[in-house]
Specification:
5 strands; globular; two-stranded antiparallel ribbon; mainly alpha
Amino acid sequence: MEAVDIEALRDSPIGQLVPIRGHDPRLGEAYEYVAYVPDPLPSNLELKAETYAAVIDAASAMARADQASSLLPNPSLLARPATRREAVSTSALEGTYALLADVFEADFLDVGELTGSVSEVRNYVTAAERAYDMVAEGQPISVRMLEDLQRELLRGTASDGSHAGSVRTTQVFIGLGNQRVMSARFVPPPADHRLLDGLRLWQDWIREPSAIPTIIRVAVSHYQFETLHPFHDGNGRLGRLVMALQLMSAGELRFPVLNISPWLEQHRTEYQDGLLRVSQTGGWDNWVCFISAAIHAEALEVIDRVDKLLALREEFQAILHGAKGVSLRIADDLIGYPMITASAAAALHGVSYQAANTAITKLVDKGILRQRTAGRYDRIFQCDGVLAALEY
């Protein structure tokens, strides 16, 4: 990873370089360098007509995706796998890899049975679902909320510690590796009043009423958050989660069914370079178009996925020949619960363990479910058709 172009940042029209100094314990040496402090976000943005056209297209696709999700008997069911898809991709962007099926399975395993990577991805699921609930209850996005979510993200990981759940109090460097400070790809603001003031102004900006279209606000505020880099770890995952929370808070999405991270993962280099380029040039058009492309592409994926899941649901109903009872209810909910145990099914549908177990046996006999695990009392069953529709 290349070191930052200091001269390009020195000429930035939307931020400034400030001197920093400190001690690098890794190399046992003092350093003197510069960090980048972004200016407060503007109340108005002048963008090209082509940029607004990209935003309008993305907003239209997102509205169609939101409408498509409402075609499901229980739209909230789609949010469950969507959150896990997002967890897999947003974590992969930070170098933590897990299979979607393993993340679904984690719901039924003890902590000691999880690998480190699956446990970390699972932390994101927990944090995201909590965040969605808070926004649905009308809570505004806040730094305090993000501190709580960051603590959940780091729980039990190598990055967990006394600093978890708090805005950083020391200088950090992005893309440093084992090199000297001067080799960092980017150096965020010092951990002093400039970081705290920047965060306060960022929070105010995303909360205040504005005529700026939501997708533009999402793109711009994501840049600002990542540039401030307020935490020691988890900034990327939290920043991408905030994007979804903004769309929900603005009423653009009724349910968190749109995943932005899978597209960003496919365009990782352009994503990382785009953030830096905004700092260097102050130009918002390319960045807003990039985020609009991500939302547009993933919105179309949602529409396609809903079609596939509805087709699967109809297929299951045909296989069960209009049967009523627990087996049909479990089959109907497989689009949200493609992995299930008898205990979980009993709790979800308010029936006895025996009734749930009998229903699952019927679904296995019909080829809708298959057993995933053996040698444990509460066996895990999975629906390959739904998992395939979610994983593509």
